[in-house]
């Protein structure tokens, strides 16, 4: 039985949309938009199990190289992403990595390259419900760094920079709508953002970053470029294997950094701490 309309959870803490309760997921959760990508992400784990599946929100939990993690699909766009983040926070998750696909706005970002977001332009509607437009949508620096480290260590092509997040795939990203409908406001938006050195368009990072920041959680985003809006190419499979490898590896790296940081009683990750971890690894190796 659900408690109330205001608080739609059961006495055990089961969440209405994601069908998860406290203890079902660890602190690290990967967030693909596509439910079909959840088993793909989990396919490289040591062990995994389907924990919940409800209204398109699919969750697997397991371990990757000994580190406990989960993956939950957010669906497309800010509204459903906010629901998932709200409910995952309530069951104990606090570190999120969006694992998505994206349209590159710069010619040099080739199909299959990964884009790691340092921040997001808030063209979504949902984050405005939570905070005024002046409030930043920034990735957590330690999650961002773990993603960069993962991409470096795996030797994949990647870029780091500002992303634009829209609640609209077609008109809001400057693509003609049905019968060519495209209001002036959105005509050429992809070129105007490119001039501002924005790397890519996607649909969830800004909402995720704003919510994580408000709630004191951590968030990052990595996306595979399946489209290039300058060259007008599109391949929905480009970069997906690298995407999955980098996201999982970033969780492992972050786990190691968190463990040493907590052991040292530090609140923040620093270059000093990372150097200590590297020295230890050299010693072990
Ligand atoms: N996802 C988006 O939001 N836009 C694209 O162009 C490709 C993937």
Overview of the structural elements:
- This protein is of the alpha/beta class.
- The chain has helices spanning 37-42, 78-90, 126-130, 141-154, 189-195, 205-215, 240-263, 271-284; strands at residues 28-31, 47-54, 57-64, 67-72, 95-104, 114-123, 158-166, 200-202, 218-228, 233-234.
- The chain has a single domain, classed as 3-Layer(aba) Sandwich (Rossmann fold), CATH 3.40.50.1580.
- 33% of the residues lie in helices and 25% in strands.
- Strands 5-8-7-6-9 form a 5-stranded mixed β-barrel, surrounded by 4 helices.
- α2 packs parallel to α6 (205-215) and α4 (141-154) crosses α7.
- The longest helix is centred in the last third of the chain and has 24 residues, at 240-263.
- It starts with 27 loop residues before the first strand and ends with a helix.
- Uracil (URA) binds next to β5, β8 and β9.
- Uracil is lined by residues 101-103, 169, 173, 201-203, 226-227.
Give the helix/strand layout.
Elements (H helix, E strand, L loop, with lengths): L27 E4 L5 H6 L4 E8 L2 E8 L2 E6 L5 H13 L4 E10 L9 E10 L2 H5 L10 H14 L3 E9 L22 H7 L4 E3 L2 H11 L2 E11 L4 E2 L5 H24 L7 H14 L1
Parallel strand pairs: 1-4, 1-5, 5-9, 6-7, 7-8
Antiparallel strand pairs: 2-3, 3-4, 5-8, 6-9, 9-10
The chain binds uracil (URA).
Key features?
285 residues, alpha/beta, Rossmann fold, binds uracil
Could you name the ranges where pLDDT drops below 50 across 5 or more consecutive residues?
none
What level of helicity do the residues show?
A: 25-40%
Helix-strand pattern: EHEEEHEEHHEHEHEEHH
Strand content is 15-25%
Total of DSSP H or I helical runs spanning 4+ residues: 8
The total tally of domains equals 1
Number of strands: 10
CATH level 1 name: Alpha Beta
Bound molecules: uracil
Radius of gyration: 19 Å
Main β-sheet description:
5 strands, mixed, barrel
Mean pLDDT: 97
Architecture, according to CATH? 3-Layer(aba) Sandwich
- Stated plainly, the CATH topology is called Rossmann fold
SS class: alpha/beta
């Amino acid at each position: 039985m659900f408690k109330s309309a205001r608080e739609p959870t059961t006495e055990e803490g089961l969440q209405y949309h994601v069908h998860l309760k406290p203890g079902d997921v660890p602190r690290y959760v990967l967030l693909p938009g596509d439910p079909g990508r959840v088993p793909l992400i989990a396919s490289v784990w040591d062990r995994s199990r389907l924990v919940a599946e409800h209204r398109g929100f699919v969750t697997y939990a397991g371990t990757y190289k000994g580190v406990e993690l989960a993956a939950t699909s957010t669906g497309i766009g800010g509204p459903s992403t906010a629901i998932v983040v709200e409910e995952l926070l309530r069951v104990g998750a606090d570190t999120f990595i969006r694992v998505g696909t994206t349209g590159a706005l710069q010619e040099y970002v080739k199909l299959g390259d990964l884009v790691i977001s340092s921040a997001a332009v808030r063209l979504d509607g949902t984050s405005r419900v939570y905070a005024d437009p002046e409030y930043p949508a920034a990735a957590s620096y330690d999650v961002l760094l773990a993603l960069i480290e993962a991409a470096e260590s795996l030797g994949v092509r990647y870029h780091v920079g500002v992303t634009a997040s829209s609640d609209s795939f077609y008109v809001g990203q400057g693509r003609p709508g049905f019968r060519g409908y495209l209001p002036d406001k959105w005509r050429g938006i992809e070129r105007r953002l490119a001039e501002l050195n924005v790397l890519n368009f996607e649909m969830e990072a800004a909402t995720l970053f704003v919510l994580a920041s408000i709630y004191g959680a951590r968030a990052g985003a990595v996306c595979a470029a399946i489209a290039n809006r300058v060259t007008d190419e599109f391949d929905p499979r480009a970069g997906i294997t690298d995407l999955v490898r980098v996201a999982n590896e970033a969780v492992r790296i972050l786990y190691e950094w968190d463990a040493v940081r907590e052991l040292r009683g530090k609140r923040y990750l620093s270059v000093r701490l990372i150097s200590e971890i590297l020295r230890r690894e050299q010693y072990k190796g």
